[in-house]
Amino acid sequence: MIELFGQAQHSVTHLEMRDTYGTGEPDFQAWLAGSAVEQLEALGNMDSWVKLISSNVSRGVVFRRARVVSEPHSDYIAFEHAVTGYSNIAGGELVRWLSRPKARDLALPGCDFWQIDDGKICWVFQTGDGEPAGFELSDDPAEAKLCAAAFEAVWERGIDHAEYKPA
Fold it and tell me: CA-CA distance, 88 to 158, in Å (whole number)?
């Protein structure tokens, strides 16, 4: 991601559409076991993520992340909401949430993606239980157009992280 983000001149967008990601991660497991969010920074990669994002934001790149989620939330989405301020927001990302029923009439790609400057796409694949299963880069203009339109549709309907209350 470091190299991909370094290519961005204006914007990076990320659309997330799953209700579970990497449930074996130490931070998630610690949170499930009752650890406070403030204790998780030392357990995972939040510091390195914040530094990566903030270094790009400081050079003028806008990072926006939109999450399409089911309600009531899975344990993982509740965890993700709890840590967003310490990871995504702390790095300078703008984050919005959209409940799945409010996305029902949107044409969305079949998997998560990152998009650089409304162009290059990094398709992100997960296994059925949310573990990483690889990625694929694409410069296809039709895919870029699809992703830009899908992201903007979700972003427009989404609720800012500061206003969004988990169900």
Answer: 16
Closest C-alpha to 20, from 32, 8, 11, 10 = 32
Query: In the structure encoding, which two tokens stand for residue 3, read together?
Result: 């190299």
**Prediction pTM value:** 0.94
Residues in the chain: 167
Q: Is the separation of the CB atoms in 76 and 20 below 8 Å?
A: yes
Q: H/E element holding 6?
A: helix 2-7
Q: Which helix (H) or strand (E) holds 63?
A: strand 62-69
**Rounded alpha-carbon distances, angstroms, from residue 70 to 11, 73, 75, 81, 155:** 27, 6, 11, 13, 16
pLDDT digits (tens, 9 = 90+) for 61-110: 999 999 999 999 999 999 999 999 999 999 999 999 999 999 999 999 99
Cα distance between residue 146 and residue 15, in whole Å: 12
- Which residue do the tokens 């209350």 mark? 165
Handedness of CA 31, 44, 71, 111 (dihedral sign): negative
Scan for tokens 């790609």, then name that residue: 109
